[in-house]
Amino acid sequence: MSEIVTLEGNLTAAQAKYAIIAARFNGFIVNSLVSGALDVLKRSGVAESDVTLVHVPGAYEMPLVAQKLAASGRFDGIIALGAVIRGATPHFDFVAGECSKGLAQVSLDSGIPVGNGVLTTESIEQAIERAGTKAGNKGGEAAQTVIEMIDLLRKL
Ligand code: INI
Fold first, then answer.
1. Ligand 1 atom, smallest distance to 56 CA
2. Cβ < 6 Å from ligand 1: which residues?
């Protein structure tokens, strides 16, 4: 029997350029997500000069900025980092939904991986837990996902 062909992405970042989109809303949490993402990129061998950090007002603005970054042709992967907290907003579902739907759409339309590191939580406590405390750092996880996806897409 012939061998199964297995394709998967590695976590070693080959030559690639990354854009991080960071929301200013809930900035004290998002800053920790950015630190987590930068830490993973650095430890995976990504040079600082290959990383561009873009600040946006809130999660709702991310898809448009991601679309523009993807269309620029300057980036191989995009990492979106934000925090939408239900307790803090009556339009939680709207902001969180549009953000994640829009980011997915940009990724599909552009063919560029967009890591969704936008926390959607019930409380500030849950957001803190996911931003570098007891539930890990979702910013770092999003960065790792994008590294893997860039490598995988190059093999397909
Ligand atoms: N933006 C966030 O990133 N997180 C939130 O929790 C949030 N809340 O609570 O409303 C939020 N709102 C702002 C939104 O993203 C837009 O910036 C705003 O609606 C202007 O378009």
1. 17
2. 23, 25-26, 57-61, 82-85, 88-89, 95
Ligand 1 atom with the smallest distance to the CA of 57 is 17
**Burial letters 89-114, b for 16+ CB under 10 A, else e:** eeebeebbebbbebbeebbeebebbb
**Is 91 one of the catalytic residues?**
yes
Going residue by residue through the chain, which has 156 residues, state the pLDDT in tens, using 9 for 90 and above: 689 999 989 887 668 999 999 999 999 999 999 999 999 999 999 999 999 999 999 999 999 999 999 999 999 999 999 999 997 677 888 999 999 999 999 999 999 999 999 999 999 999 999 998 888 999 999 999 999 999 999 999
Task: Compute the distance from residue 92 Cα to the ligand 1 centre, in Å.
Answer: 8
